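Weekly modeling sync, notes
Attendees: S.R. (lead), two postdocs, one rotation student

Agenda item 3: backlog of single-chain predictions. S.R. asked that every request posted to the team notebook include the full sequence so nobody has to chase files. The rotation student volunteered to paste the first one in as an example of the format we agreed on. Action items at the bottom.

Example entry:
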Amino acid sequence: MSTGQVHGSIPLAMNPEQPKYPAQVASVKSDKVLVINRGSKDGVKPGQRFLVYEVEQEETIDPSTGRSLGHLEVVKGSGVVIHVQDQMATIQSDTLPTPRKVIVRENPLRAMQKAILGTVVTSPALLGDEIAEIPLPERVVGFEDPKVGDYAKPI
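Predicted structure, as returned to the notebook:
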């Protein structure tokens, strides 16, 4: 990393005595698997969870005071450590989408309309239709646009 990049409001530079966290993404293996630059020497353990995020370059300004609130951390997902080496660890996404399935039960009048007209109405829910949300099985989604240099911190 070169001098001038920021984490929060603190400029970061190459430093052998770097703080343990935030770690950084060192390699993107897929949208669901990342390698971070911290490992067992830094106390990382299998099963440990990390939040992956990027820091906006632009400062956020308080509209009422005009003072800087710092740099916004934009969350890209969370993951769990699946493999640890001395100086790096592999994390796999454990981010779940909001599961839901929408089911529309037709109003009996619409069913009659179909029978009379002989057509299938494909419009969205109409007045009188019953709408229900049914949970779907959970499925892990990947990190959102992960990049080398994104940050990671334990959660």
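Discussion: group reviewed the output briefly. Residues 5-97+138-154 form a domain with the Thrombin, subunit H fold (CATH 2.40.10.410).
Action items: rotation student to repeat for the remaining queue; S.R. to check formatting next week.
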